[in-house]
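Teaching note: in complex prediction, the entire set of molecules is handled at once rather than each chain in isolation. The prompt given to students was simply: 'Predict the structure of this complex.' The entities are:
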Amino acid sequence: MSGCKISQTRRDVLKTVAGTAALLAPGVFLVAAPAPSKARPEDSMAQPSVRWGLLIDTNRCDQECTACVTACKDEMRLPSHGRPASDPQYIRKVELAEPKTGFTRSLPVMCQHCTNPPCADVCPTGASFKRADGIVLVDRHICIGCRYCMMACPYKARSFAHEAQTGQAPHNPRGKGCVEACTLCVHRVDAGVVPACVEACHAKGRGAMLFGDLMNPEHAITQVVAQYPTSQIRADLKTDPGIRYHGI
Amino acid sequence: MANLPDLVYQEINSKRPCFRAAVVILGLIFLIGLGAAYYMEHSGHWVTGMSNEVVWGMPHVFAVFLIVAASGALNVASIGSVFGKSVYKPLAPLSALLALALLAGGLAVLVLDLGRPDRLIVAMSHFNFKSIFAANIILYTGFFGIVLVYLWFMMDRRLKSKSSGPGTFAFIWRLVLTTGTGSIFGFLVAREAYSSAVMAPLFIAMSLSFGTALFILVMLAAYTMDRRPLGVVITERLRVLLAVFVAATAYLALLQHVTAAYWAGRVEVVDFLLFGSGFYSFHFWGVQMGIGTFFPLMLTLVPRMRSHGTLAFASFLVVIGGLAQVFIIIIGGQAWPLTLFPGYEVESSFFDGVVHGYSPSLPEILLGLGGFALALLIVALGTAILRFLPVSLADAEIDPHARKHQAETKDEEEAEPAPAA
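The expected output is the structure of the full assembly:
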């Protein structure tokens, strides 16, 4: 599996954080301690002491850039059948325009990995669930394909596998008739690697995405969200997403 | 009804050509529905009109209609057992049978539209008790059991006098069941067209209206096809009941939209459903309110229009209007896009910010009709095998006042001297 470590060296982390922090407040640089890069041992459970999250700096997200979307499709091997209404999209770029002021923004939207996920609340079989570390997943062994989670998700973050699947990635076993969504690249995170979208954003975009443990004070994301204003989509619904945005 | 002898119940004559033709046609429609389900399941849902935007389509319209109607079809039995209106008691077994049949038809459609219908056993063995959907699975299953017991009490001569107990329990259960079905939508907090406490009472009213309409149609069809006497005492009461339920449904439907319109954030979706979009607003005003409410009210309430024929036609219109109402709730509610960023205009490759289109496919409609056919097939076979229906529902048979009046009229005729030759 290719991918960069969450933080291979202190220098890497500082570079990443500095880049983000520089835009959050020009001239201000955060001093970040090294983030852990340990893979989760296979025989251990996800821990509630961890809360994986993403910070997306919309000031750095270019309208033309779709690196995160492309990386997700490649990583999860999501095919396009030329049917946009039923083709899966785990992450999409949304263009915002404030009609009164002309203010525009471009940002990626994916499963928001809520603390209180409505999809998991409504799922009749418990197939939609939240891992102890905050990652919301679908157990495709017990998903019956009722799509009630898609009705309940406030973020339109879920897709339904409308056709038989071929060429699936081992880490993303897709099944016709099941619901699916962004897994926050749980297979990479468990291996100590950042999600594919984050990696692509740093490699090909302007580094608008910061991944880490929102409960670990040593992680850059935790330090940034503590110092700069960030927001959650539809915070009024109290779902408490793990995905935070800066600049909207 | 102590002064009336026990009614004689008898199976429907299954040898009549019209009965056999009806069974064959219903069987064919059911088989076509099964074929449609197999096609959709085998190909995947991309062959349907459903998508990642409109995830519930025509199968859900039919399924919800049938499930809601199932609860309401038990109404006639409930009025007899729970509220002691003995004139309804002769029809209570048919009421319970129709309730079971409609629920079976609705659930069959719902299950056959699942992405993984083969995992039905998972749905029956893995329960997330926080889910209103899981609660509904228990409510539907329980409804089958409770109504079966109720039916047993009604049809067993030794237990008949004790049937009010199971009847009351079934009555309460079905109210909870319809509340649960309405709450499937009412609990969707992010969907502007749904999230409302009005959905539960609205669905209860809908169930009474749709269920009564279907009951009237089935009863009239059975008595007409089997050439059994049917008076006006029972149909007159059902006519008034239907009118009350149709009016209550229309009132709550309007209340649902008025409540939403009072909320600034929901004005747009109300405008979209009622005025803005040609398609949904046409169905709301033209089909739901016009064909499904105004005309049935006229047909049932205008005295000179009262007849079995107009009652059947009014019931048919209620069914059409009801399907339109469920269509607007389910499809219209999903067509309106989710608001992720209030105050912003949004655009994306995943259809954010745009009204979602939906074109129902033929297999979806055939599956839904197959559910209807299954329900009616169960009723037809049930009434042909067991004694669900009284041989006569002539007024004098079921109403002591009508019997007394008939006897007095007869006496007067006999007492009146014969005219001079």
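Point out the following to students. Chain A touches chain B through 57 residues (CB under 8 Å). Chain A is about 25% helix and 15% strand.
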